[in-house]
Amino acid sequence: MATKSGNDALIRLTRWRGGQHPTFSLIARQMRKEGLRPYMWVNTPNHRYAVRSHGYEKVLYVIEGTLELSFPDENQRVVLRAGDRIDIPAGVRHGTTVGNGGAKCVEAAKAESRRR
């Protein structure tokens, strides 16, 4: 999935297609190959993050559990499952709800977007 946001930035969703269950080390290794500095976070079931935007492009993978991301300016919702990746451009407003089983995720800011 690739969707243009209200500010013409491209939100990219990549579904996991690997046969092996995604692990932190597997995903972190892939992110480091892209020049990213990944970090992991864990959240409890049904935790909500209010709608916000960032001054950098965010790369987010789900390792365990599910996340529902809402993009109010695009009037879209996306559910991420283990192994799924989403790239959210700087300035794109999004909210997040953690699934019923909680979630373990890995994310990083793209270096070129942090320097702007």
Walk me through the topology.
Elements: E1 2-4, E2 10-14, H1 24-33, E3 39-43, E4 48-52, E5 58-71, E6 76-80, E7 85-88, E8 94-109, H2 111-114
Antiparallel strand pairs: 1-2, 2-7, 3-8, 4-8, 5-6, 5-7, 5-8
Task: Characterise this structure.
- This protein has 116 residues and is mainly β.
- It has one domain: Jelly Rolls (Sandwich).
- The protein contains 2 helices and 8 strands, in the order E-E-H-E-E-E-E-E-E-H.
- Strands 1, 2, 3, 4, 5, 6, 7 and 8 form an 8-stranded antiparallel beta sheet that branches.
- The mean pLDDT is 90.
List keywords for this structure.
mainly beta, Jelly Rolls, eight-stranded antiparallel sheet, 12% helix, globular
Fourth-tier CATH superfamily name = Jelly Rolls
* CATH architectural group: Sandwich
Which geometry do the CA atoms define? globular
- Give the distance, in angstroms, between the N- and C-terminal Cα atoms: 26 Å
User: On the 0-100 scale, what is the average pLDDT?
Assistant: 90
Short description:
The chain is mainly beta. The chain has two helices and eight strands; from the N terminus they run ββαββββββα. A hairpin with a 4-residue loop joins strand 5 and strand 6.
